[in-house]
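To the team - iron/sulfur cluster complex, inputs and output below.
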Amino acid sequence: MSNADADLGCARCRLSETRTQVVPGAGDSSAALVFIGEAPGRDEDLKGAPFVGRAGKVLDGALAHAGISRDMIYITNLVKCRPPSNRRPKDDEVEACARHLEAEMGAIHPKIVCLLGQTVARNLLGCDSDMKSLVGKEFPLSIGGKKVRAFVAYHPAACLYRRENVESLRETVRRCTEAAGLR
Ligand code: SF4
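Output:
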């Protein structure tokens, strides 16, 4: 589901009952580097765009630190509708929304994917390891009908109250940027 082909009326899971609107991915629709977050939060639900709240500012800071900007990348989420009270998306919701993410990735064909947070890593890599053992590491991933290189980073929201995670996020974003050939 990209801006170009977003299913803004999707009702494939229960999140459609509580959302304000579907939040499609945004950015360069032929980007070499794609960031995948967990789910829209309150600000994203109200504005209809991904990573526009406080966590988005943290991500913007990491992008700037790596010498790139949002118009050079694409940002989306595992599920496109806000879970109530910002709870984690449930497995059946992720499964229902997977077809949107697959279509999105199939249209973009990124070279590098940055997985933001443990929920995203668990669902896309199929592993239950803790973040400390995943963060900064590279994994092979098949998504959108193609094999890509995936890196795991702390979710920007996990940097809001743990400043020590910011440096780690910046370093992983910098590595993703280099691997994608953007710097
Ligand atoms: S989260 Fe995904 S599958 Fe569920 S209603 Fe929203 S767009 Fe559809």
